[in-house]
Amino acid sequence: MHDLIIRGGTLYDGSGIPARRADVAVDHGVITRVGRVPDRGRTELDADGRIVTPGFVDIHTHFDGQVSWDPLLTPSCWHGVTSVVMGNCGVGFAPARPDRHDWLVGLMEGVEDIPGASLSEGITWEWETFPEYLDAVERVPRVLDVAAQVPHGALRAYVMGDRGAANEPPTEGDLRRMCALAREGIDAGALGFSTSRTLTHLAITGDPVPGTFAAEEELFALGGVLGAAGTGVFQLVPLGAGGERVDDPLGEITWMRRLSAAVGRPVTFGLFQNDNDPDGWRELLQIAEDAVRDGADLHPQVAGRPFGVVISLDSTHPFHKRPSYKRIAHLPAPERRAAMRDPALRERILGELPENADPRSALFPRGYARHFPMDATGPDYEPAADRSFDALARRTGHDPEALIYDFLASGETSGMIFRPLLGYTEYTLEPIREMLLHPQAVLGLSDAGAHCRLICDASTPTSMLTHWARDRGRGERLPLEFVVRKQTWEPARLYGLRDRGLLRPGYRADLNVIDFDRLALRSPEFVHDLPAGGGRLIQKADGYAATIVAGEITFRDGEPTGALPGRLVRGTRRGPGGR
């Protein structure tokens, strides 16, 4: 008798081959048979009329603090994710000297928009070194597997103190010490090293992330740690990836190409289309492809939808710095909306200017051609240009800012506005589609656990299935087999997790059973469920009949079962037969 049998589902096995109808048997957390299974199972799931996929692997998350308090790792767990990699973008919480805790919290708060009060209350600092951090993570059971990378910012601050935090160059001794600690982290089980060089990544103090201006000597030395260990991925957000203007748009990929070839390790870097150079991504993709001939292994990390913010009264909006609005900002959202509908207050707020400059003012230009109302019935991440508030204003003869005000204040709308920042220059997702199809590109950039008050891209795994494989109406779709592969075997293979991502005997039994016809994203909602009452956007989905981790059913119809089979993943994993 098998531990678990999933019967009669349509299998999209992660390899990209055509789907087939089959049973899946599981024993001791491993897939033992795929095909017709005549035996019985202690537990059986009827997957007739549903699809069965490997569990999704999200390689770009920021759960570094949340792993301390949340065994579910929401919102990723609601979207079929069974493995995550954290420690991206050079930020994390280890190594950490006792007098640097507040500074590390401020770094994460500034770069990744995670409420500092929530991090301070939620994290139990049981470590100083990176291996001790992994030990602490390992002690907490959870619903899914987690893996970590060594973050450059924390490493610099640990070794160099204020000099490292201020982006001063390291001495020879500093660099030797950083390399030794990076190797210590890799030997303890880190899956790679991460850094950030974009000028848009700033600590809560406004200072750039440590490592932003690191010279090649430092980068190549730390990359060489991975080469000497023969394992690990070098992850970064390069200069220009945040949409900032750069003098040499090819300068970053030039050194990345040389680094990968020199150390023999893969380099993955964030890549978006940006309005300052709308076609530059094509050249970067071509260089990544050409680099293979030189022995380099570059993987542009691309998104499944535009990088954009969700504007609402609960997060931030065009009026939150205006004097008359600030006088009612303390009210609960329903009372605030009611107050905003008062004609006299409406006139005052619309006639005012912000009291002081807002670092996020770029979200709210006088023109609103990139601001789209989000439907209460479900989000649209590829809205047509004629759905923007500017377009609506032209058609109706109203001021677009007044339309936004009324939309936010109304009790009959979703009250949420989608503002794409990157990846939507021409009001189409065709560039993202081309990126996804590129042979070197890997799907990532969900930022799950981060940007709590403005972004909720942890739901990308679901929108990949619904938008790209089923619902897209403004361009070509992508085959479901391909979409599943992009979220399973490909990211798992890049990070050396070759024991998962395929529905084949001998592979880890991480699976999803999905009612594909019913699969749907819910609208985002703003909740205050973080430690210290911190607020964040969350987004759930309908249609996940079951999610299974290591052979245990962790979710049924979107609700947790109480099973906590997830563990810390230390180092790479071989597949069946040592592959």
Automatic annotation (TrEMBL):
Keywords: Hydrolase. Residues 44-555 form the Amidohydrolase domain. InterPro entries: Amidohydro_3, Metal-dep_hydrolase_composite, Metal_Hydrolase, Metallo-dep_Hydrolases_sf. It holds the Pfam family Amidohydro_3. SUPFAM superfamilies: Composite domain of metallo-dependent hydrolases, Metallo-dependent hydrolases. GO terms for cellular component: cytosol. Transmembrane segments: none annotated. It comes from the Bacteria. One of its GO terms (molecular function) is hydrolase activity, acting on carbon-nitrogen (but not peptide) bonds, in cyclic amides. This is Amidohydrolase family protein. The lineage of its organism: Bacteria, Bacillati, Actinomycetota, Actinomycetes, Kitasatosporales.
